[in-house]
UniProtKB/TrEMBL annotation:
One Pfam short name: 4HBT_2
InterPro entries (alphabetical): 4-hydroxybenzoyl-CoA_TE, HotDog_dom_sf
Gene3D superfamilies recorded: Hotdog Thioesterase
Keywords for this protein: Hydrolase
Signal sequence range: none
Family that this chain belongs to: Belongs to the 4-hydroxybenzoyl-CoA thioesterase family.
The protein's name in its UniProt record: 4-hydroxybenzoyl-CoA thioesterase domain protein
A GO term, aspect molecular function: fatty acyl-CoA hydrolase activity
Amino acid sequence: MIKMLRKKKDVYCHHASEYEIQFFDVDSMNIMWHGHYVKYLEMARCAFLDEIHYTYDVMKEKGYGWPIVQLNLKYVKPALFRQKIRVELSLVEYETCIRIDYIIRDIATNEKLTAGSTTQVAVEIKSGEMQLQTPPCWRSAVENHPTFQRETA
């Protein structure tokens, strides 16, 4: 029998953000509506971008848009009204695109609630052309982050 070997992912940076599930994000059963999980990923991603000083405003100033081209979510256990969660973010690709893996956990129990990933590509605003490599200004911001490492996770 041939056993498939999976290469471990490179993890270049880590970040974690904490939130409380708000009333406007839940349904009548006090369960967070599935579409709102994306908002919490976005909030954590924005917090990470703030941390590396490469916010969406900076991206625009540098002449690039960064659309999401892929989003994946796996719901493991529902998040509930007033539950305190931690969104753990791992940057797993930054040279050709921005690929981030996420885990949403219950803060009290550390139990995994959701796993997901997003992929963003650089698009030059003037030409509208997708870039095959991320701009040097993005790579520099990532490489200067205190958690940056080139080791395999």
